[in-house]
Amino acid sequence: MTAENTFAPVDPVALTADLIRCPSVTPAEGGALVLLERLLSGAGFACTRVDRGGIANLYARWGAKGANRSFGFNGHTDVVPVGDRAAWTRDPFGAEVVEGWMYGRGATDMKSGVAAFAAAAVDFVRDTPPDGAVILAITGDEEADAVDGTVALLDWMAAEGERMTHCLVGEPTCPEVMGEMMKIGRRGSMTCWFTALGVQGHSAYPHRAKNPMSALVRLLARLEEAPLDEGTAHFDASTLAITTIDCGNPATNVIPAKGSATVNIRFNDAHSGASLSDWLRGHAAAVEAETGVQITCRFQISGESFLTPPGEFSALVAKAVQAETGVVPQPSTSGGTSDARFVKAHCPVVEFGLVGKTMHQVDERVEVAQIGQLKAIYGRILREYFA
What we know:
Elements: H1 12-20, H2 32-42, E1 46-49, E2 57-62, E3 70-76, E4 97-98, E5 101-103, H3 107-127, E6 133-139, H4 150-160, E7 166-169, E8 181-183, E9 185-186, E10 188-197, E11 201-202, H5 212-224, E12 239-246, E13 254-255, E14 258-267, H6 273-291, E15 294-303, E16 306-307, H7 312-325, E17 330-332, H8 340-343, E18 349-351, E19 365-367, H9 368-385
Helix pairs in contact: 1-3, 3-9, 5-6, 7-9
């Protein structure tokens, strides 16, 4: 490489700090995508803002459209609200470094991950221009409804003929130790809102009323009576959690006419959102028949379970993680949902990122040394992928 073609490597720590200083509390863009677009455009990436529904999204591609091999990174720059600002010991948008830790909202989830893969991608295409394309799909709508974020990017890609052949999502994946876990799938998530309509009456004469709360208690007991399953080959057992039960009744001597309850289910590949909806409706209908209380159901399916079967792609990621950390990552499907649930319909997807212990917490922080380590892992993955 000649001297005139050399570039200073992108510092992922400085880039993380710059991103944290952008107050991109979802759905605000806060300057984060503007900053990234400037960096990526300067490195030769073709950048397109794919904004939809008031949400800012950025698509950046280095290399030819329609290349045979297109490695993609996916991540988000939006962050959850600060919460009680007085409880923070550091400015949540200050990116202050104290004793080897950088503090700030999004430090872990996931501005450090975005900074690491952006820095790795820029250095890679400058140092070793690949025979193929490198794509960054970055959204501002992961922490909110996720309707106009990665979904909008994938819709736009389909319309424009853009495609990733494989994708790595940079969410934090390690529970305690850097390198210990990668995600090869995720459980599905769904919520059901039950509304029970009975007959109001005096609590001294319960036989003259139809108590919706009694019906709901009976229904919830049925749902918790037996486990949904015992787990599958790559997934833990599905779980059901009661999250609310209420009727808003201020009186102690009145049986209310209406009550409500909510359950959230995290499910494995033994189920689908549709099959669980039918299961919940069946239990509601049975309790309705037993009690005479009308029970209706409303569902929101946030994502189906999915799996990228262990194979060449996950092995490549694991090899790079081990080479840079000395730790062999465990393939896992644990945790909540991520935007990988949308990417999985586009191409094979794996998730790997930092230790996520402080994400969404007061004094969210990231170990500075891990940011550089993560960039090195992503850079190694790119080199091996295009080797």
